[in-house]
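In practice, a research group might receive sequence data for several interacting partners and want a quick structural hypothesis before committing to experiments. The following worked case mirrors that situation: the sequences arrive first, and a predicted assembly follows.
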Amino acid sequence: MATHAETLDHEHYHPPGLQHQFEDMKQQEESVSIGMWLFLAQEIMFFGGLFTVYLVFRSRFPMAFAAGSNHLDAFWGGLNTLVLIVSSLTMALTVYYAQKGNRNMQVILIVLTMFFGAVFLGVKAIEYTDKYNSGLVPVTGLNKRAVGGEAHASTNFVLPFETRASATAAEGGHGDAPYVNPKGDFVWTDTSLISNALKEQAADPEGSYLTTAERYGYFSNGNIDANKFRDKVRIFFWIYFVMTGLHALHMVVGLGLMAWLGWKAWLGTYGPDYYMPVEMSGLYWHFVDIVWIFLFPLLYLLGRHFIHA
Amino acid sequence: MANKQHEHAHDEEHEHIGIPGYLGVFAVLVVGTILTYWVATVDLDWIFPGANTLVALLIAFTKMTCVMLFFMHVYWSPKLIWLAALASFFWLAIMFSYTMGDYLTRSSGVFSP
Amino acid sequence: MQNVDALDAAYNDRPTKNYLNNGYTLKSWLLTKDHKRIAIMYLVSVSVFFLMGGLYAATIRLELLTPASDLLESGTYNKVFTQHGILMIFFFLIPSIPAVLGNFLLPIMIGAKDLALPRINLLSLYLYWVGGALTLWALTQGGVDTGWTFYTPYSTSFSNTFVMAVGLGIFINGFSSILTGLNFIVTVHTMRAPGMTWFRLPLFVWAQYATSLIMVLGTPVVAITILLVAIERVARVGIFDPSIGGDPILFQHLFWFYSHPAVYIMVLPGMGVVSELISNFSRKKIFGYEFIAFSSIAIAVFGFLVWGHHMFVSGQSIYAGLVFSFLTMVVAIPSAIKMFNWSATLYKGSISFDTPMLYGLGFMGLFLIGGLTGLFLGSMGLVVHLTDTYFVVAHFHYVMVGGQVIAYLGGIHYWWPKITGKMYSEFWGKVSAMLIFVGFNLTFFPQFILGYLGMPRRYASYPAEMQVLNIFSTAGASVLGIGLLMPVIYLAHSLFYGKNAGPNPWMLPGLEWRTASPPPTENFETTPVVTWEAYEFGEESGLDLEGARRRESVTTV
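A structural hypothesis for the assembly, expressed as tokens:
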């Protein structure tokens, strides 16, 4: 039997970046594209599990979700949405310029994309810190405590227009200073939304203002039980942290991807003959943007009409 | 399908929609964001309970569609890519609908603990 | 020319350059992009996990020899069956046929040089190793006792075992699975040789494609679910804890959304192998090619709609149960279609009872029993009596061991000459196939009866009147164990002392038999051009198969 030749097919011009298992660039581009979309499909299912958890708990405890959502700052959330949309634009333009072979514009736009991505993460840091300060982190011990049970003067990262939970207990802290929370517990005492719902229910006995689960879940012996309500709000915040946290993790990976891409673009790797890595990285970046497009209204804008109504 | 072609994959629609197009889509997305923020403050519960959420989701879907079709170039992609994208949402729908189907039909009442 | 050489009975020299001797360093193996080498590394790894899972199984059967919980106390027994399940399902059954046989054969069967994304393939292997190592480490530290199903709130709030570590190991392993599936789908779409149209593909490829769809769409859900359990163990927020408003059933929905399709990940490749075995060892074109191809896709799709049949008695709504039960009956139909088509293929075929065919026929019988008992469990009335009994255990072992493992062994034997270039001992192959068949039935058939009589699963002790059947089961397990060890010995022996196989020892028309054994690194000397249909035993295949068989029967002693 003949021993194998060095190359199987006749020698021809090998475009840059063509891998050995492919016959030509078109096959490689097609393969990489299908592969990336399949990867995005599995990412959709990955986040989908979390959206299912959200769906189930939201349908059970809408009041708790509305209450928790009101304490997320929709301003920061909205700003983040816009930031990501801008970064998507710069990403799309990066692909455009990669196809045109314009190295300088590619690099500028990748840097801009990274900048906006970093802004997004910075805003998330602000938000998370606010939750930490306000006793809204659902894990005991991960909230700001006060030493010796005394209220601290506000020294931590507290911006003027950020929201706070009304976490000061009746006997606790005072005025402007953050709360008293020796164990770093999740703190929640505001049950006004339930009281409102009960009033509306009383005025309109035919309507339904609380779900069956809520009728059991928020009350003890017929009275509103603030601790039980707190537990449900805590579930909201857990979902908030896990979903936005996982999203932020994907952003970090995206930034790493962009850094690598920026480096390769600076070296002039991409042009009309070979630009698929830019396009594929773009797909990932747009996907992360799309997840946030859904997270924003579902987490930040619930029940906002309750307080404004 | 995997035919030998020695030309490079140079299709003339490389440009797709060009910079004005991208900026146009961007404008749509920004408008959508501002719209969803504003609508959230208006109580639409008089239409039916949950109307606010429905509107928010519709806006989000529209934004997603714009990003997918134009930024992610699905509009110009082969049918297989369309299928991959749509299939994922179909599977997501299976997961949501059958799970909620259980919760919604429990005999102890809707959404009982 | 290649076609004639493929049948040259006189030719049995090993090709001088093949994928095995193309580089001998450790680096050439660990950093390889060759799908065949990756398949070999998977073969060794899954065999190790199978052995370990088997040792746990032996421990279970030893404990169950006596009614009392005397060999192990209950807590330890919980760990043993949990770890048996985890190792077998996640680290053996799910990767086995796709990662070993699929990786090796898929590119060759479609006429390609390699998979579409070889580096992703290598990444899959690394992730498998990392996930496996983490899980094994956790097992040495004390393991887990939650059952492979990790039901909450026990796994999140009460278990004192290494749930997080094992969970993370499974999470990482899940991505190995996803990437393999992704790779296969892309490869089948873009890497087929000229003339290899979709309906000329071997049914093994169709089965792998369907399996890959499930891997890509289902595995991420169990990944996120296990991640949630791990987060819960740290955060202790209680989303699965009913006392504060959480929901344990939600975990079950999310878990089974993947884990039911997972059983199809396990069995579909097995069915693909069986299609190859039945057709090729009957020397007859498979009956109803399109039906079998589409039934694989149908199983993949419908398999996602039935997960609630694992939750009939969990508190799930009756109406949901109704829908899931109905769909469970529906999903049995494509499997039945395959069984009918295989039977029709056998009819008037020229059947040769070589070892792979014995496994193929064994699959048909055992999967039939396993599948039908699945329907018993899918009907809501019966399941109330049978749930969480040994009936369930027997059912899934019939489909997973009697089905998948038998198919895997059949595939290993069938393609062994292609992979290694050597023939194994047919005598010992047949002996061990028989032992496995007898041992398997003796182990698991009594368990159907035990389940019907009410013996609960996952219990270390049981009423004394059930001891006889348990003794049968353990005796069968011993026979099964011997039967499963024998291939290790004679296959290893064949590596050194086996006869050289030549490119086409079975004299078959498939594309994989038209290249050398073992194949060169690029699989084919020149890219093949396919002009024949699948399972073409006539002249259109381009090979004179009957002539070769006549020559062989004359020249062979």
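Before designing any experiment, note the following. Chain C touches chain B through 27 residues (CB under 8 Å). The domain at 2-555 of chain C is CATH 1.20.210.10 (Cytochrome C Oxidase; Chain A).
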